[in-house]
Write a structure and sequence with these properties.
single chain; alpha/beta; 7-stranded parallel beta sheet; 4-stranded mixed beta sheet; binds nicotinamide-adenine-dinucleotide
Length: 438
């Protein structure tokens, strides 16, 4: 286990943030960081920029900003790189995504136009609704990984970065089950040379990152790095990995409300969630293969939080449905409805209705920023393998094979902050509080 208060290397020099996919989320992140650097806006929603951490007893009044408490890279030291199957630079892609106002984007045109996508590793069999021309060619999947390794090497050199981190912000791939070739590094590498179908493009990026000494976070529900071969590779190379699927919109809501129902022992008969969404992500998820990957990620949350095996009278056999409807007029401004049928004292039924008019990429961008900064921190602190303390950011958090994932947002936040306290040699906060009454 990582030693309490062990030394953490300083974040000296530039941190390269390599983003797979230059779509709505990525461009909203890059534009946002640039706007914050220029003093045009505030980094609302980012724990690393605005969050605090309480230290010691409540009577001590010590609550520093997280970024003053742990050594994080400064926003001025971030350099962004990206791959995409389309040739649009970050300015054009941001305009196309339609998330941020044209006026704001025109103020940021120069830095955004400098981010030009490197040719992607892509195959349409994994994302059926897309087809682009900015794509690498290679005889085998291993050849493609080697080309990515070269991209990473050149990016680091050109931008004089001291460290790098990679985050998958590309489209959701079709659902695939874990396969025997995912079990060991050897089998995985052989399968890459043999162009095995179970090796997806996202796995090729993750493999290229890890073999280049770069940690990898997965923002989509694809398996990607959540397979024994790649978690073993991360361990072997002392690199952090985490995933899957950024926890924004409806699932974020679910992981706040479900713990509240369980805390008060209110029963659940059914939870129906439906969305309308009109961005490219919505279009990709309109394909049943990609939707299946997303659906699996969204469905598992309630069972883990409500624990029907522990509370059969309250949570056995509830109905849980999730729908995503591609509806172009809405663009990135998703609307999500939840109808929750609950029951209380003596079994009396009640209902909760939620209508969340959200903005998908506005919710996701600060998550990507935090993940990039925390993954860099983890690497400098010598934390390797699966970073369960970053579950806070994910719909399907990766965890050790013998564990079940922790989904409750408030437990996740406590885990994250206690990890930071542990890293800095501070006492963990248990919320016992009896000592105040002695
Ligand atoms: N925005 C959210 O709230 C949210 C929440 C959870 C997960 N996600 C996931 O984040 C990802 C990005 O979302 P988005 O709204 O930015 O989508 P988007 O469609 O706007 O952008 C994705 C980009 O990835 C590119 N791409 C696809 N395959 C690629 C590959 N193999 N290599 C390089 N580029 C590739 C596409 O061309 C596209 O430009 C999606 O998988 C989405 O499901 C988003």
């Amino acid at each position: 286990m990582l030693e309490k208060g062990a030394p953490i290397a300083d974040p000296k020099g530039r941190l390269g943030v390599l983003l797979v996919g230059l779509g709505a989320v990525t461009t909203t992140l890059i534009a946002g960081v640039e706007a914050v650097r220029q003093g045009l806006a505030k980094p609302v929603g980012s724990l690393t920029q605005m969050g605090t951490v309480r230290l010691g007893k409540r009577t001590e009044g010590r609550s520093p900003l997280i970024r003053d408490f742990v050594p994080l890279a400064d926003l001025d030291d971030l350099v962004f790189g990206a791959w995409d199957i389309f040739e649009d630079d970050a300015y054009e892609a941001a305009l196309h995504s339609g998330v941020l106002d044209k006026e704001l984007l025109s103020q940021l045109k120069a830095p955004l136009s400098r981010v030009k996508p490197m040719p992607a590793v892509f195959a349409q069999e994994y994302v059926k609704r897309l087809n682009g021309t900015n794509v690498k060619r290679g005889k085998t999947k291993m050849d493609l990984a080697e080309q990515l390794v070269e991209d990473i090497r050149q990016f680091k050199r050109r931008n004089r970065c001291t460290r790098l981190v990679m985050v998958w912000c590309a489209s959701t791939e079709v659902f695939i089950k874990p396969h025997p070739v995912h079990r060991t590094i050897d089998r995985f590498e052989r399968a890459m040379r043999e162009n095995h179908r179970a090796i997806t493009p996202s796995m090729i990026y993750a493999y290229a990152a890890l073999t280049s000494g770069v940690g990898f976070a997965n923002g989509a529900p694809n398996l990607t790095v959540d397979i024994p071969a790649l978690t073993a590779l991360a361990e072997q190379r002392s690199l952090p990995v985490c995933g899957k699927d950024f926890k924004t919109g409806q699932t974020w809501m679910k992981t706040m409300i479900a713990p509240g129902l369980k805390a008060r022992l209110l029963g659940l008969r059914g939870w129906y969630s439906t969305n309308i969404l009109g961005n490219r992500d919505g279009e990709v998820l309109d394909d049943p293969g990609s939707f299946k990957t997303k659906e699996e990620s969204k469905l598992s949350v309630l069972d883990y939080i409500l624990q029907p095996q522990v509370y059969p009278e309250l949570y056995r056999d509830f109905t849980h449905l999730v729908r995503i409807n591609y509806y172009p007029p809405r663009g990135d401004n998703k609307e999500g409805w939840d109808n929750i049928d609950i029951f209380g004292w003596l079994g009396y039924p009640m209902q909760i209705k939620i209508d969340f008019l959200c903005r998908d990429s506005i919710l996701a961008a600060p998550i990507v920023l935090d993940l990039a900064l925390f993954m860099d921190l983890a690497q400098r602190a010598g934390m390797r393998g699966i970073q369960e303390w970053l579950s806070f950011y994910f719909k399907s958090p990766m965890c050790a094979p013998e564990l079940y994932p922790e989904h409750d947002l408030f437990i996740q936040l406590m885990k994250l902050k206690n990890t930071l306290r542990h890293l800095r040699g501070e006492e963990l906060i248990t919320h016992l509080g009896l000592e105040y009454y002695d």
